[in-house]
Write a structure and sequence with these properties.
6-stranded mixed sheet; 14 strands; 6 helices; alpha/beta; Nitrilase/N-carbamoyl-D-aminoacid amidohydrolase; globular
């Protein structure tokens, strides 16, 4: 199957323009599984609860999910995309999974980064795996990569591909994802954004370089640091289900869980 990403630079607060840009870019995607960045519809640099309340949307009734559903149905693809989610009086840094049949599921970011802790509730969805029929996917958001338990949990639950929506500002993730994939023998698509967010006298720069990584830790494709890019790679997804390293070692069966407690 063909998996890939959409990379671009959302403009903070310009939801309609960001959705149109993402929809246009998705129109050129010719794969089966597309991953978009974290907060692709709003931009990232929130500075108040009021801003979050203004831009957060309910899933599945919000305009962002509706656009993604329309594209998924038109192109017969699965899309994983990050957005600020509202549920009652709570706000989450979330990613929605959609395909031609509707909303497959939602993931809420487990490990909040920096000032996200001021405005968003810690995710309560847990790390869930979604069965698409052709493959099983797990979802992470940005800083989740920093914690090995994130991908290990998804791999143990049967994920073949990790869909990683990101707004990366630190320089380490792209190289670290090689180890994350190798130690779990899974594929990963890291969809990062580019450019700057400026808001409330603050500015934040994002590193781009969205990446598709294979189960052996090899980088199948890495985007530029600055350009809009739509990329996809054909993979043998079934190869991620083989955890046998050699005739004596199996990645999961050799785990010594009784020695891993603190």
């Amino acid at each position: 199957m063909k998996i890939g990403f959409v990379q671009f630079a959302p403009i903070f607060g310009e939801v309609e323009a960001n959705l149109k840009k993402a929809e246009k870019l998705l129109d050129s995607f010719d794969g089966e599984l597309a991953v978009l960045p974290e907060f692709f519809n709003t931009g990232y640099l929130f500075t108040s609860h009021d801003e979050v309340a203004t831009y957060a949307e309910e899933i599945p009734t919000g305009a962002t999910t509706n656009m993604l559903l329309n594209v998924a149905r038109k192109k017969n693809i699965c899309i994983v995309a990050g957005l600020p989610e509202r549920e009652g009086n709570e706000f989450y840094n979330s990613a929605v999974v959609v395909n031609k049949n509707g909303v497959v599921g939602t993931y809420r970011k487990t490990h909040l980064f920096f000032e996200e802790k001021l405005f968003f509730s810690a995710g309560n969805s847990g790390f869930n795996v979604f069965d698409l029929g052709t493959c099983k996917i797990g979802v992470m958001i940005c800083f989740d990569w920093f914690f090995p338990e994130s991908m290990r949990t998804l791999a143990l639950k049967g994920a073949d591909i990790i869909c990683h929506c990101a707004n990366l500002v630190l320089p380490f993730c792209q190289d670290a994802m090689r180890t994350r994939c190798l130690e779990n023998r899974v594929f990963a698509v890291t969809a990062n954004r580019t450019g700057f967010d400026t808001n409330g006298g603050k500015q934040m720069h994002f590193t781009g370089a969205s990446q598709i990584t294979d189960k052996n830790g090899e980088i199948l494709f890495r985007a530029s640091a600055e350009n809009d890019e739509v990329s996809y790679i054909d993979i043998d997804v079934t190869s991620a289900r083989d955890k046998q390293l050699n005739e004596f070692n199996n990645l999961f069966l050799d785990r010594r869980q009784d020695h891993y407690t603190k």
